[in-house]
Design goal:
There is one protein chain. By secondary structure, the chain is α+β, with helices and mostly antiparallel strands. 33% of the residues are buried. The protein has helices spanning 13-17, 19-23, 27-32, 36-46, 85-96, 109-116, 128-137, and strands at residues 53-59, 67-72, 75-78, 81-84, 100-104. The chain is 40% helix and 18% strand.
């Protein structure tokens, strides 16, 4: 799957206001905008034998992270599957047309959600964890 900037899939105002409508989006848009952090944590947990890290993107100078993804040995995993991290960064910078910062995330999911005002799994219309596990399993990791 080709790298696609997360902003391509931003939720509409109706999707932001209606959890069920947001939930009913196809997997790629759902995990690009609104549940990327869930996908990243599930990816890390799926491969406990690998040193998978977590990273986030935010607009330069801002505190709020707008996209979270998993990292491993120069690769990134997000809604577009596994791609070179440099390609993911370039696609998002080009789409946003403004400087971005990449940050390493060391918090656990609950602390991250609290500090960044992201939704915990139990706050979605349905349980996103099985959906995220299925999505991770559909994308072969680069070490296979």
């Amino acid at each position: 799957m080709a790298v696609t900037a997360t902003g391509v899939f931003r939720r509409t105002p109706r999707e932001r206001a209606d959890q069920r409508l947001a939930w009913e989006r196809a997997d790629q848009p759902f995990f690009a905008a609104g549940a990327c952090h869930i996908l990243a944590w599930v990816c890390r947990d799926t491969y406990p034998d690998r040193p998978i890290g977590l990273a986030g993107l935010r607009f330069a100078g801002e505190r709020q992270v707008f996209h979270v993804y998993a990292t491993w040995a120069g690769w990134a995993f997000d809604h577009a599957g596994w791609n070179p991290e440099a390609d993911l960064l370039a696609a998002n910078r080009e789409f946003e047309r403004r400087p971005l910062d990449r940050i390493t995330i060391v918090d656990d999911l609950a602390a991250f959600c609290e500090s960044q005002r992201h939704r915990m799994p139990h706050r979605y219309w349905g349980d996103p964890l099985p959906r995220a596990r299925d999505y991770v399993n559909r994308h072969a990791p680069p070490w296979e």
